[in-house]
Amino acid sequence: MCPAREGCVRTAKRDRRPGAAGGGMAVMNDLSIRSATPADLDEVLAFWKAAAEGTSISDDGDGVARLVERDPEALLLAEREGALVGTVIVGFDGWRCHLYRLAVHPDQRRRGVGKALLAAAEERFTALGGRRADAMVLDRNTSAQHAWRAAGYAPEPQWSRWVKHLTD
Predict the structure, then answer these.
(1) DSSP-derived secondary structure letter, 15
(2) Backbone angles phi and psi of 156, in degrees to 5
């Protein structure tokens, strides 16, 4: 994965075969994955309102700006023809690999966007020495659960998420 500040872009070619992801419909040819910059943050927040399931206490300009400032490669964006079509936060604390905010625009689902974002995230984790990735997935979001399972992830029923809000 290359830092956005160096202007690197990862591009994936789409499969145009009939019956390929997208149901054989006309599918845009290229998907670019890059790290977000501070200039992208308003667009990302608006995108999450339209494409993400649920909201987070951190879904504000300050919260996302802190993320990008602290780790400029943590927020990955997928774009087609210059339009934002997907996001994932790829958090690594030096010990564990965490995935948050995998969101794909409803019109772009089942076209390889999530798969490409997860491949880029896993590539980053591997380069950083990560050994296992975990994902935050809402219990009620069954369509997301199917996508995560298809990508090789599974819930661990022996664990529960415990939360304490530090601000109002």
Answers:
(1) P
(2) -115, 100
8 A C-beta contact, residue 53 and residue 137? no
Q: What is the pTM of this model?
A: 0.80
HSE toward the beta carbon, residue 139, CA cutoff 13 A? 4
Torsion angles phi and psi, residue 162, rounded to 5:
-110, 135
Q: How many whole angstroms separate alpha carbon 153 and alpha carbon 43?
A: 28
pLDDT of residue 26 exceeding 90: no
pLDDT tens sequence across 50-99: 998 877 777 889 999 999 999 999 999 999 999 999 999 999 999 999 99
| DSSP per-residue codes, 77-121 | EEEETTEEEEEEEEEE-SS-EEEEEEEE-GGGTTTTHHHHHHHHH
Judge whether 88 and 100 are in contact, CB under 8 Å: yes
